[in-house]
Amino acid sequence: MSAWYATLSPLGQNLLTIFIAFTLAWLVHRAAGRLAQRLVGLNRFTSKRGRLRSERLDTLRGLIAGVISFLAFLVALLFTLSLFVDTSTLIWMIGLFSAAFGLGARPLVSDYLTGINLLFEDPFDVGEKVELHGLIGGSVEGVIEQVKLRSTYLRAPSGELFSIPNGEIRVVRNFSRGRFSVANIALKINSEDLSRAIPLLEELGQEAVSLLPNLLEPWRVISPTGAISQHTELTLAAKAYFGKAAEMRPRLLALVQERLSEAGIALAE
């Protein structure tokens, strides 16, 4: 190999070296996913308390794979340039190119820098339902499917897949990390029954915590308008375990209706 390589012209030697450098970079790029998998797999050697969630590991896997691919091609490019210019000139060229690239491709640089920042911050993970605000086209809501170094892929409730540059993500509303869901219900009580209904509802709120497993705490009886006439509108401000409000609300309505009927209190039309 060395004897055959020596027979090549200087230009041929450089071209072969460049080909090998970028081939190695391409191979590293192809293996980036496996390398990232091995790196995030080190998480199993940490204590149980310090272990990351599986969703976080999926997110880190995509980001680390992107970083490995980027560094592989960057090293190949710098090695190629070093074949034609000396070290001092190469450093000067890198600085000049970085400044020009930073000005001319600011959105692209912002995308990659934000992607790198996602390695250390944890605003969302793969599989979580979020709403992203501040985008050029407005806000987008859906489930995170993949997070890469430059873009985040989000599946909307209607089925579309959004590819969102990381640099555009400003405000994240993460539904999957909520501590509770609101399960308020509205009632319309005749004014003459108000003095009996309020104590009954407050007492029932204490009891409902044991009757409805998804209820976090006793509800509060409030009047959203503060107005009174022939009837008064009341709201039971209830908190359910996150994601359980929709399935708990029918049982909550049935329980309130049953107790009001037993007490002879009819709801206003």
How would you sum up the global shape?
elongated
| Helix-strand category | alpha+beta
Rg of Cα set: 30 Å
Distance between the termini: 93 Å
Strand order, biggest sheet?
Answer: 4-3-2-1-5
| CATH level-two architecture of the largest domain | Orthogonal Bundle
**CATH topological fold name of the largest domain:** Helix Hairpins
Tally of strands? 10
Uncertain segments are: none
Share of β-strand residues: 15-25%
Number of domains: 3
Q: How much helicity do the residues have? A: 40-55%
Can you summarize the main beta sheet?
5 strands, antiparallel
Mean pLDDT: 82
> How large is the count of helical segments?
8
CATH class of the largest domain: Mainly Alpha
Write up what this structure looks like:
The chain has helices spanning 2-6, 10-30, 32-41, 54-82, 87-104, 106-117, 194-211, 245-262, and strands at residues 129-133, 140-147, 151-155, 161-165, 171-174, 180-182, 185-190, 220-222, 231-237, 239-241. With 269 residues, the protein is an alpha+beta fold. It has 3 domains: 2-104, Helix Hairpins; 129-176, Roll (SH3 type barrels), CATH 2.30.30; 180-262, 2-Layer Sandwich (Alpha-Beta Plaits), CATH 3.30.70.100. The strands form 3 sheets. Strands 4-3-2-1-5 form a 5-stranded antiparallel beta sheet. Strands 7-9-8 form a 3-stranded antiparallel beta sheet. A hairpin with a 5-residue loop joins strand 3 and strand 4. The longest helix is centred in the first third of the chain and has 29 residues, at 54-82. The radius of gyration is 30 Å and the shape is elongated. The N and C termini lie far apart (93 Å). The model has no long low-confidence stretch (mean pLDDT 82).
